[in-house]
Design a protein that fits this description.
By secondary structure, this protein is mainly α. The chain is about 85% helix and about 0% strand. The protein folds into two domains: about 120 residues, no CATH class; about 250 residues, Helix Hairpins (Orthogonal Bundle), CATH 1.10.287. The chain has six helices and no strands. Helix 2 packs parallel to helix 3. It starts with 5 loop residues before the first helix and ends in a 5-residue tail after the last helix.
Length: about 425
């Protein structure tokens, strides 16, 4: 029998039990020595001890690898990628696992270094760098790198857009300032012109008020003159009638004077005849001759007086005729005057009405001009505010351009005029 010594068999069985516990993990270390006496069994024991020694050596190396794997994974889970697995195992599968983990750490570390490099450039306003996506074949790490590159493109696009806007604002705000300055000057001149216009309209309004008042006075005076002319026409008509009556009376007086002249003539003849008869009668006719002489003298005086009166009546008739003619002409002229006064009165009334309407229109224009003056003042205030905004926009544009000058991005050195930038900004879609 190979194992005839029971004690040696028990020793070998005990050794195998210890090995079994070690393999199961119930024991961390095996410490064995030679414990059999039989030479044949001792060979078996030596072989078992050699296997145990090999097993423990391999297990120690595996444990070292496993220990580094755990440490590296713990540090990796904490965010550190500066450790690698250096230990080697006799088990190629474990070595492959360690190699794969080292590759993972290397790729992650490499990608993170590139990410940190790019982000550091971003922090320094340099957006010209991107990350090579070939580090990973796919997965979330590749998506992360692609996201950073997309972020770089988005930032570049927005910064370029902002840079162009800054240049455009700088250019446009200068133009705006120049135009606002021109508008300020124009508004100032306009305000002066409006103010002068207001003053002129006020003077015109004052003159029109005075003219209206004068025209109203003229209208009242013309009415009084018309009333006076009407009364004068009545008086002239009465004068004309009186002159006609005087002319008729003069004619009657002339007739009476003619009769007196005839009577005086007849009386003179009769007295002459009486004187002849008295002279014929002699002494008896002397007294009668004296009476006849006296009658003749009276007849002569009557004839002389009649001639004088006739001369006066002729003069009176001539004057009466002239007065009648003058009264007729005056009546005609006063009718013309009355017509002219009526026409003048109508014209003056129209002037008063037109002056009143003109006064109302001037007052309306004056109110409108004052409103324009007020609005011009408001416009001047608004223009001052616009100018202030233009200056602020210009300062903001300068700061925006200065800020973007410190940022390095693709397309910054492209030479575009402000007009070309404006055209490109308004021809492209608006950024979200």
């Amino acid at each position: 029998m190979l194992f005839s010594n029971k004690q040696d068999v028990d020793t070998l069985l005990n050794t195998l039990d210890i090995i079994d516990e070690y393999v199961k993990g119930d024991r961390n270390k095996i410490s064995l020595g030679n414990g059999v006496s039989d030479k044949n069994i001792k060979k078996v024991e030596d072989k078992i001890l050699s296997i145990v020694d090999t097993l423990q050596t391999k297990n120690v190396n595996d444990l070292k690898v496993f220990g580094e794997i755990m440490l590296v994974c713990e540090k990796l889970s904490d965010g550190y990628t500066d450790d690698y697995i250096a230990q080697k195992s006799d088990d190629e599968k474990i070595n492959y696992i360690a190699f794969s983990i080292n590759e993972v750490i290397s790729n992650i570390s490499n990608s993170l270094n590139k990410v940190l490099f790019v982000l550091d450039k971003f922090k320094k306003n340099d957006y010209t760098h991107s990350i090579d996506l070939d580090i990973f074949r796919g997965g979330q790490f590749k998506e992360l790198l692609a996201g950073i590159n997309a972020l770089q493109q988005t930032i570049t696009t927005r910064v370029l857009h902002s840079y162009k806007i800054g240049i455009t604002m700088n250019h446009q705000s200068k133009i705006l300032q120049n135009e606002v300055s021109k508008l300020q000057d124009s508004t100032a001149h306009q305000a002066v012109s409006v103010r002068n216009t207001v003053d002129s309209i006020e003077n015109i309004s004052s003159n029109i008020k005075a003219n209206t008042k004068t025209a109203e006075t003229m209208f009242q005076s013309s009415k009084l003159l018309k009333d006076t002319a009407s009364k004068s026409l009545v008086m002239i008509e009465e004068t004309k009638n009186t002159m006609e009556n005087i002319d008729k009376s003069t004619a009657l007086v002339n007739d009476a004077i003619s009769m007196i002249s005839q009577i005086a003539f007849q009386t003179n003849i009769l007295s002459l005849n009486a004187a002849v008869e008295a002279a014929t009668a002699g002494e008896a006719g002397k007294g009668f001759a004296v009476v006849a002489q006296e009658v003749r003298n009276l007849a002569s005086k009557s004839a002389e007086v009649a001639v004088t009166i006739q001369g006066l009546m002729d003069s009176l008739k001539a004057q009466t005729t002239q007065g009648k003619t003058s009264a007729t002409e005056m009546d005609h002229e006063f009718h013309i005057l009355n017509d002219n006064i009526s026409e003048t009165l109508s014209n003056v009334e129209q002037i008063v009405s037109a002056s009143q309407e003109q006064k109302n229109n001037i007052e309306t224009i004056s109110t409108s001009i004052k409103d324009i003056d007020y609005e011009t003042s408001k416009n001047a205030h608004s223009i001052d505010q616009v100018n202030e905004i233009a200056i602020q926009s210009y300062n903001i544009a300068i700061k925006l351009v200065e800020t973007n000058k410190d940022i390095n991005f693709n397309g910054k050195d492209a030479t575009e005029s402000p007009d070309e930038i404006i055209e490109s900004l308004f021809s492209t879609k608006k950024l979200d």
